[in-house]
TrEMBL record:
Organism listed in the record: Streptococcus henryi
Catalytic activity, EC: 4.-.-.-
Gene Ontology process terms (BP): tRNA queuosine(34) biosynthetic process
UniProt remark on cofactor binding: Binds 1 zinc ion per subunit.
Keyword Metal-binding: yes
Family the entry assigns: Belongs to the PTPS family. QueD subfamily.
Alphabetical list of NCBIfam families matching this protein: queuosine_QueD
Chain residues that bind Zn(2+): 35, 48, 50
UniProt name for this protein: 6-carboxy-5,6,7,8-tetrahydropterin synthase
Pathways involved: Purine metabolism; 7-cyano-7-deazaguanine biosynthesis
Amino acid sequence: MFLAPKEIKEPTGQCLVYCPRRVQVSKEFTFDAAHHLFNYEGKCKSLHGHTYRLQIAVSGFLDDRGMAIDFGDLKTIYKEHLEPRLDHRYLNETLPYMNTTAENMVYWIYQEVAFHLPKERGLQVESVRLYETPFSYAEFRKEWDQDGI
């Protein structure tokens, strides 16, 4: 049962979930890492580093607390499965064999989050955005994952 906000006065044992639709939740992280690019003629060919900014957006239907996913659960996924391979690392050694462009990295991060996301209430990764500089980012979205590779 969904209650309009004016009907909610105090917990009475009824469900306090108001929104019956899918809701997106996003959390942001930063990490520092070094890498170099293969098959590239420019200064990024050499070893260099970035302070990356990562945004992970997940959607789902609300639980009995009125949450799609707890922000702390997204933080746990990052801390346990992403941060050990990203933060203060040489990405060419800690990530799967790839050219460590923001485009390749954002897809890998999308896949990792999707794999570790609880499969309840229709939770799904909507998008992952990775800023390599304050004004340059790569993004991967769920609707672009057509092939399901």
